[in-house]
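Data card: per-record layout.
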Amino acid sequence: MFRETIKRLSGHTITIQDLYYYTGDTLARLGEARPAMDAFRTETRLSPENIRAHAGLAMLCRADGQAAESEAAIDRLVRAVPTADGWAMAIRLWTVFGERARADALRTAAVSRFSAESLAEAERRLQPSKRAAQKPPV
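The structure for this 138-residue chain is written out next.
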Protein backbone atom coordinates (compact mmCIF):
# COMPACT_ATOMS: atom_id res chain seq x y z
CA MET A 1 0.00 0.00 0.00
CA PHE A 2 2.80 2.45 0.88
CA ARG A 3 4.65 1.62 -2.35
CA GLU A 4 1.48 2.23 -4.34
CA THR A 5 1.00 5.60 -2.64
CA ILE A 6 4.61 6.57 -3.38
CA LYS A 7 4.15 5.54 -7.00
CA ARG A 8 0.93 7.55 -7.34
CA LEU A 9 2.53 10.64 -5.77
CA SER A 10 5.41 10.57 -8.24
CA GLY A 11 5.37 13.75 -10.29
CA HIS A 12 3.07 15.58 -7.86
CA THR A 13 4.20 18.37 -5.58
CA ILE A 14 2.36 17.13 -2.50
CA THR A 15 4.01 15.08 0.21
CA ILE A 16 2.62 12.93 2.96
CA GLN A 17 4.38 13.36 6.28
CA ASP A 18 6.22 10.21 7.43
CA LEU A 19 5.22 8.22 4.33
CA TYR A 20 8.76 7.02 3.68
CA TYR A 21 9.37 6.43 7.39
CA TYR A 22 6.36 4.10 7.65
CA THR A 23 7.32 2.46 4.37
CA GLY A 24 10.82 1.79 5.72
CA ASP A 25 9.51 0.58 9.06
CA THR A 26 7.06 -1.80 7.41
CA LEU A 27 9.64 -3.13 4.94
CA ALA A 28 12.13 -3.67 7.77
CA ARG A 29 9.55 -5.67 9.72
CA LEU A 30 8.97 -7.76 6.58
CA GLY A 31 12.69 -8.50 6.32
CA GLU A 32 13.29 -6.31 3.27
CA ALA A 33 16.32 -4.43 4.61
CA ARG A 34 17.66 -2.83 1.42
CA PRO A 35 14.37 -1.24 0.30
CA ALA A 36 13.74 -0.23 3.92
CA MET A 37 17.10 1.56 4.06
CA ASP A 38 16.26 3.35 0.81
CA ALA A 39 12.93 4.48 2.26
CA PHE A 40 14.59 5.75 5.46
CA ARG A 41 17.20 7.60 3.38
CA THR A 42 14.44 9.25 1.36
CA GLU A 43 12.59 10.24 4.54
CA THR A 44 15.71 11.78 6.07
CA ARG A 45 16.32 13.71 2.85
CA LEU A 46 12.72 15.00 2.69
CA SER A 47 12.31 15.49 6.47
CA PRO A 48 15.76 15.79 8.04
CA GLU A 49 14.17 16.43 11.44
CA ASN A 50 12.61 12.94 11.50
CA ILE A 51 14.50 11.33 14.38
CA ARG A 52 12.85 7.94 13.91
CA ALA A 53 13.93 7.74 10.27
CA HIS A 54 17.57 8.46 11.16
CA ALA A 55 17.38 5.86 13.93
CA GLY A 56 15.75 3.26 11.69
CA LEU A 57 18.47 3.73 9.10
CA ALA A 58 21.23 3.49 11.72
CA MET A 59 19.76 0.30 13.20
CA LEU A 60 19.26 -1.40 9.84
CA CYS A 61 22.75 -0.51 8.66
CA ARG A 62 24.23 -1.83 11.88
CA ALA A 63 22.24 -5.06 11.62
CA ASP A 64 23.41 -5.42 8.01
CA GLY A 65 27.07 -5.14 9.04
CA GLN A 66 27.45 -1.62 7.68
CA ALA A 67 29.01 -0.10 10.80
CA ALA A 68 30.46 2.93 8.98
CA GLU A 69 27.11 3.77 7.38
CA SER A 70 25.38 3.30 10.74
CA GLU A 71 27.85 5.70 12.36
CA ALA A 72 27.30 8.19 9.52
CA ALA A 73 23.53 7.98 10.07
CA ILE A 74 23.99 8.80 13.77
CA ASP A 75 26.30 11.69 12.90
CA ARG A 76 23.70 13.03 10.45
CA LEU A 77 21.04 12.68 13.17
CA VAL A 78 22.84 14.93 15.66
CA ARG A 79 23.62 17.48 12.92
CA ALA A 80 20.09 17.48 11.46
CA VAL A 81 18.32 17.47 14.84
CA PRO A 82 20.60 19.47 17.17
CA THR A 83 18.17 19.20 20.08
CA ALA A 84 18.15 17.20 23.30
CA ASP A 85 15.75 14.77 21.59
CA GLY A 86 18.09 14.18 18.66
CA TRP A 87 21.09 13.71 20.90
CA ALA A 88 19.14 11.44 23.27
CA MET A 89 18.29 9.16 20.36
CA ALA A 90 21.94 9.07 19.28
CA ILE A 91 22.96 8.16 22.84
CA ARG A 92 20.33 5.43 22.90
CA LEU A 93 21.57 4.02 19.58
CA TRP A 94 25.20 3.87 20.75
CA THR A 95 24.01 2.18 23.95
CA VAL A 96 21.93 -0.38 22.06
CA PHE A 97 24.92 -1.08 19.80
CA GLY A 98 27.05 -1.81 22.87
CA GLU A 99 29.23 1.23 22.27
CA ARG A 100 29.15 2.44 25.87
CA ALA A 101 32.18 4.75 25.58
CA ARG A 102 30.65 6.53 22.57
CA ALA A 103 27.30 6.85 24.34
CA ASP A 104 28.99 8.25 27.45
CA ALA A 105 31.08 10.74 25.43
CA LEU A 106 27.99 11.93 23.59
CA ARG A 107 26.04 12.19 26.86
CA THR A 108 28.79 14.35 28.39
CA ALA A 109 28.75 16.64 25.36
CA ALA A 110 24.93 16.76 25.38
CA VAL A 111 24.76 17.70 29.08
CA SER A 112 27.15 20.60 28.52
CA ARG A 113 25.11 21.66 25.50
CA PHE A 114 21.53 21.23 26.78
CA SER A 115 21.66 20.61 30.57
CA ALA A 116 21.27 17.36 32.43
CA GLU A 117 17.57 18.00 33.05
CA SER A 118 16.60 18.55 29.42
CA LEU A 119 18.63 15.53 28.30
CA ALA A 120 17.02 13.35 30.99
CA GLU A 121 13.57 14.55 29.90
CA ALA A 122 14.38 13.74 26.26
CA GLU A 123 15.61 10.28 27.26
CA ARG A 124 12.38 9.67 29.20
CA ARG A 125 10.37 10.51 26.08
CA LEU A 126 12.21 7.73 24.25
CA GLN A 127 11.14 5.11 26.78
CA PRO A 128 8.14 2.99 25.83
CA SER A 129 5.08 3.98 27.78
CA LYS A 130 3.98 1.66 30.57
CA ARG A 131 0.62 1.36 28.89
CA ALA A 132 2.18 0.15 25.61
CA ALA A 133 4.26 -2.38 27.54
CA GLN A 134 1.23 -3.88 29.31
CA LYS A 135 -0.22 -7.08 27.96
CA PRO A 136 -3.83 -6.93 26.82
CA PRO A 137 -6.38 -8.58 29.13
CA VAL A 138 -7.14 -12.21 28.34
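Known properties of this structure: The chain has a mean pLDDT of 88. The domain at 1-81 is CATH 1.25.40.10 (Serine Threonine Protein Phosphatase 5, Tetratricopeptide repeat).

See the next section for split statistics.
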